[in-house]
From TrEMBL:
This is Ribosome-binding ATPase YchF. Belongs to the TRAFAC class OBG-HflX-like GTPase superfamily. OBG GTPase family. YchF/OLA1 subfamily. InterPro entries: ATPase_YchF/OLA1 (IPR004396), Beta-grasp_dom_sf (IPR012675), G_OBG (IPR031167), GTP-bd (IPR006073), P-loop_NTPase (IPR027417), TGS-like (IPR012676), TGS-like_dom_sf (IPR023192), YchF_C (IPR013029). The lineage of its organism: Bacteria, Bacillati, Cyanobacteriota, Cyanophyceae, Acaryochloridales. Keywords: ATP-binding, Magnesium, Metal-binding, Nucleotide-binding. It comes from Acaryochloris thomasi RCC1774. ATP binds at N11, V12, G13, K14, S15, T16. Residues 2-256 form the OBG-type G domain. NCBIfam families: redox-regulated ATPase YchF (TIGR00092).
Amino acid sequence: MLRAGIVGLPNVGKSTLFNALVANAKAEAANFPFCTIEPNVGVVTVPDERLQVLSDIATSKEIVPTRVEFVDIAGLVAGASQGEGLGNKFLANIREVDAIAHVVRCFDDDDIIHVSGSVDPARDIEVINLELTLSDLGQVERRMERARKAARSSKEGQFEMTVLEKLREALDAGKSARQVDLSPEEVQVIQGLGLLTQKPIIYAANVSEEDLASGNAWVEEVRKIAAEEQAQVAVVSAQVESELVELPEEERGDYLESLGVEEGGLRTLIRATYELLGLRTFFTSGPQETRAWTIRAGDKAPQAAGEIHTDFERGFIRAETVAYDDLVSTGSMGAAKEKGLIRSEGKEYVVKEGDVLLFRFNV
Ligand code: GDP
């Protein structure tokens, strides 16, 4: 399962957000007993409106959403890359995640101390990014020491040195590894480094309940920075989300309506993180259950089958395939079949977002 790490300065709302994520997952995932692997790791179901539609068509007994993992990585402070606080430990935790959700404080509250004295998203982002960048710089420089020797005797070594030079220059200038233009061969060379600033990032702009509908100037600042960095933004209110989980379900709608929004931002954050991870969803749908499954972009039909069961992958023959939109517009599998919209796809078929699949396999 893919993992996203929640990072940010102290007191920006990370734990509040994480707890809301986890509480929601517990409530929603009736079919999947929520599992706490470690206290700071939560498995979250990915909301997907298509599930209900497919389930209605197939009159399924159950709906099973797909999932993604969130890790609360608290304790990142200025100086972490120099070992300040438990700095290195946190940076090592970040190295293990597939994507970063960076919570940025965009709410004002005199009762909640801000570590730097005032609300200033641009500065906060800079503080965290500097730590990530410095950590990467150290990583690249250590690798260069080894590569330098190899460069004397081999072409590969020389190639590696050029790539590392390129990275060092960018990191030194305060850029992220994400912003460095690398060819697929060059990316290959640095894969093992686990660079933090190479990971896809989403900024979760944490706003007060009053600003959830309208946003505010701080959110705009975050958007501007994100655009420059090729990062994403999701506006969320940790406060609203934590209040929502406390409310009985029938009262949640009224509360959200009073704020002028449809949701507290958590669904958007989960969805956006999922997309950030480069994931694709395919469905299986029948009278028993309608279920969403996760694969990576580019995965082929047998790999998709393998998500369900390794036997499905091994014995894969074909996948009866219909696009979500085609199934919905015709209204039933039978009607889709009559119109020739159900295709029989083989081993080389790259599964597309929203495909509804039925696997044929040998056991
Ligand atoms: P962390 O250190 O980043 O994990 O921050 P916490 O989640 O512990 O939040 C720090 C404090 O800020 C807590 O008292 C929260 O209740 C409060 N807080 C979190 N999000 C919001 C918000 O959106 N608005 C307001 N007013 N307070 C918040």
